[in-house]
Amino acid sequence: MKIEQIETFFVDRYLVVRITTDDGTQGIGESCYWSYPKAAEATIQAWEPVLKGMDPGDIEHIFNYLFRYNGAFRSNSIGGALSAIDTALWDIKGKRLQAPIWDLLGGKVRQKVRAIALGVGGDTPDECAVAAKKVKDQGFTALKFTPMLKNWPEQRYGSMIKLGTEMVEAVREAVGWDFDIGVEIHRNMKPAEAVVFADSIAKYHPYFVEDPIVPDSVVAMGEVGAKFRVPLAIGERNFGVYEFREFAQLSNCAFFKPDIAAAGGITACKKIAAIAESFHVKIAPHNFQGPIATAACIQLGISSLSWDVQESVNENESPRVDMVDEVVQIKDGYYIPSERPGLGMEFNEKSAEMFPFKPAEIPPPIAEDGSVALK
Q1: Same domain, yes or no, for 207 and 264?
Q2: 130 and 46 in one domain?
Q3: pLDDT-based confidence at 34, cuts 50/70/90?
Q4: How many domains, in total, are found in the chain?
Q5: In whole angstroms, what is the distance from residue 296 CA to residue 2 CA?
Q6: Is 360 within the bounds of a domain?
Q7: Using one digit for the tens of pLDDT, what is the confidence trace for 68-102?
Q8: pLDDT at 48 over 90
Q9: Which of 98, 113, 129 is the last residue of a domain?
Q10: Are residues 91 and 180 in the same domain?
């Protein structure tokens, strides 16, 4: 079997890769370099000539070959491109052997993967509480939300800490104590602010506090983590085993949040999960992309001991539901793994026509003094 064709498709903001072999077997993957997906697509297209003719079964070799191609440069365009290709190769292997990917990875360590609901939020504590109660009523046992207003650069230090704490308190009161709350900061605090805020919400026992500061420095994140009395979650923008190795050693984190469509696909994330296991760190993967990335996560989540909660968005809505013939199902707050070969789904090529490419346009917030509000 040889790689014969590599195609890329945009469905809204989702970049899908489809690899076809000389016997007609097709595998699909997804990239999560959502801010500049055209760069990831260009990387895939640059690799196409060297991939053609390779044996798609040599996944580990292909991963390392592409990672070191043209001098081993690092970027999210490379990570996103390699992730999509790697997942597609695993999909091909599963179809070739007529087995789900989780079966090829050693079988099940659990029967289902717990979902953590996203999309909870509001501008007031009461609005956050209503949204939290709604997802609990839907059967979820965990949620993640951002206890900060969209205009956070305009808030003063004291009001930001006070309002954020009140939002966490309101959510805890709404869902009770037999429920896990993830707190997402979206890199919007300075180290000192993050430490004070973490202390302020510690009594509400957050499951984790995610990305409290910008991930520019592992050392800086470690300094924050050393002062936290709550679990720290990091890693959604990172790639490969080397960066996560440093997080494990230096950051004092409790959760890794690799994005399987940016961190290196199934090949890299199964190794990242092993690093996490050796440090007693849990995996709560970043996942707000399309159904192909979700399916790849569930394949690993079923087969990796360190996998914990899986970020969940509604995949029964367009355009996600239109991208594939079957999304991974959630029942009573848990993802149920597919028994179909490979990823357990097929790409709907017509979805690319239904939902043309929509580029990301998210300018950074501007502080009242006119500077970029990077906290």
Answers
A1: yes
A2: no
A3: confident
A4: 2
A5: 23
A6: no
A7: 998 877 788 899 999 999 999 999 999 999 999 99
A8: yes
A9: 98
A10: no
Structure tokens at 246: 């440093």
* Tokens 């014969």 sit on residue: 4
Length of the chain: 375
Quick one: tokens of 19?
């690899």
Bond preceding residue 125 cis, omega within 30 of 0: no
- CATH code of the domain in which 29 resides: 3.30.390.10
Q: In this structure, are 13 and 124 located in the same domain? A: no
Residue range 205-230, pLDDT digits in tens: 999 999 999 888 899 999 999 999 99
Same domain, 83 and 213: no
pLDDT tens string 324-371: 999 999 999 999 999 999 999 999 999 999 999 998 888 888 888 888
> Of 326, 323, 320, whose CA–CA distance to 351 is shortest?
323
Residue 32 amino acid letter: C
Number of neighbours of residue 211 by Cβ within 10 angstroms? 23
Same domain, 266 and 336: yes
In a domain, residue 238? The reply is: yes
DSSP 245-295: HHHHHHS--SEE---TTTTTHHHHHHHHHHHHHHTTPEE-----S-HHHHH
Using CA atoms, how far apart are residues 308 and 140, in angstroms rounded to an integer? 14
Do 30 and 145 fall within a single domain? no
Q: Which residue has the tokens 């999304």?
A: 327
Q: Is the pTM of this model over 0.85?
A: yes
